[in-house]
Design goal:
The protein is of the alpha/beta class. It has five helices and ten strands; from the N terminus they run ββαβαβββαββββαα.
Length: about 210
């Protein structure tokens, strides 16, 4: 069995001739999600009730959809959405819940599904908030772990890939609401250029030839 704490490896980036490079291909993602599904199926096989998979909106949606199917056992799905206070509030960086769970998780096995973990501040807040609701167990699965940016230590029991400190788009992750539906994960090589023109990658990703592939 793959060691989830180690995560999958990155085989290198492939230049696409654009302001972004393929970091993890769709096929690599699919293989890793299947592996995580197998591990989670074994973990929760003897749970007294179906586990509750909680997706953190919006970045985790594609990962969650694929993961819950890969797990292949009875499971429930719920969602949370979070935001940060604006700088004008004097509490910049403080996380708040803008959409809470619809169901009660007391006594349930809970799996928090994240798209990416970097500083650990948001995940620490979420785990504390969910832990106060007295679940039977609480674990985190993250598609991406940007450990180089960690500020506070936080458990990530399962992870797909550890990545370097780069800005990524695709497979649920966006830039200003765009590019979530790109099947591969891309590292943005020129973030300043993309910020100046948020449509910069539309043509290479969605032109007549389709998204550039690894």
């Amino acid at each position: 069995m793959t060691d989830s704490r180690a995560g999958g490896g990155i085989k290198g980036v492939v230049s696409s001739g654009t302001a972004a490079e393929v970091l993890i291909s769709a096929s690599e993602i699919a293989g890793r999600v299947e592996g995580l599904g197998t591990e989670l199926r074994e973990l929760y096989a003897d749970s007294p009730e179906p586990p509750v998979l909680i997706g953190v909106l919006k970045g985790s949606t594609l990962f969650l959809a694929d993961l819950v199917r890969a797990v292949g056992i009875d499971a429930e799905v719920d969602f949370m959405a979070i935001s940060s206070y604006s700088a004008s509030s004097g509490q910049s960086g403080v996380v708040r819940i803008v959409k809470d769970l619809e169901g009660d998780i007391a006594g349930r096995d809970v799996l928090l599904v994240e798209d990416i973990v970097d500083t650990g501040l948001t995940l620490t807040y979420l785990r504390r908030s969910l832990g106060e609701r007295e679940p039977r167990s609480l674990r985190t699965v993250a598609l991406l772990d940007k450990a180089a940016r960690r500020i506070v230590p936080v458990p990530v029991e399962f992870r797909g890939f550890e990545i370097p400190d780069v800005f990524v788009v695709g497979y649920g992750l966006d830039f200003m609401g765009r590019y979530r539906n790109v099947p591969d994960l891309y590292a943005v090589r020129d973030l300043a250029r993309l910020a100046n023109d948020p449509t910069l990658l539309v043509e290479p990703f969605f032109g007549l030839d389709g998204p550039p592939r690894a």
